[in-house]
Amino acid sequence: MNVVKDVVSRKIAIDTEQEVRLNLTAVYRLLSHFGMDDLIFTHASARIPGEDAFLINPFGLMFREITPETLVKIDYEGRILGRDTNPANAAGFVIHSAILKDRPDLDCVIHTHTRAGVALSCLADGLMPINQFAIEFYDRIGYHDYEGIAFNLDEGPRLHRDLAQNVALVLRNHGLLTVGANIPAAFYFMYYLEQAARVQMDVLASGRKIVEPPLEVVKSTARQYTSAFNPPAAGHRMWPSLLRLLDQVDPGWRGA
């Protein structure tokens, strides 16, 4: 299909630590811009190419304060590497190290505590395929039962198990998580998972009868998304425009 070739040709190379730092900073600034942050809490991480280490936010900065230089480089044993002196969020380390260490096919993990995401995580039904945003995640989202604040390293294997081969994970009574083979893909999934959650909670709050698409339509629509037949290419078409948006509304995000 021409559309597949077109999307693949637009894939963005993020091959060096500095490129990872810049693009992960963009994730934090975009989460803030779109109202998906939670003061200094929640986190996004990205693997450093060729190293057994990843980058994550320093604990204590709001997302709009993060720059490439402030990101913390940490290995899978929890050791801060290089010249970084800021601590990482302990729960963030548990969640992100558990996924990145055992999934070499994934380079980015994003976790949020948005109002709609937390509300959805409290619903026994989870994400309902009642709108086009949600349908993209049909049969591609897992669920992880609440175990308290993620300070226990023992929770890691269960997070890994519940994510399985999905692109998203609902942390019950907690929030949302998405993963990607690269940074644009992980952000793409989080942006649209958040939109699906917001729409679902608005619909449920209306109290009106819900129109549910037929299952066969849900299944066929889910297969139409680029992210379904070429997951690593998800988000690459829109990523340059998002970086331009940051240049316009958030000067200084690129750091020194």
From TrEMBL:
GO terms for cellular component: cytoskeleton. It holds the Pfam family Aldolase_II. GO terms for molecular function: actin filament binding. Residues 22-201 form the Class II aldolase/adducin N-terminal domain. InterPro entries: Aldolase-II_Adducin_sf, Aldolase_II/adducin_N, Aldolase_II/adducin_N_sf. NCBIfam families: PRK07044.1. Belongs to the aldolase class II family. This is Class II aldolase/adducin family protein. It comes from Oleomonas cavernae.
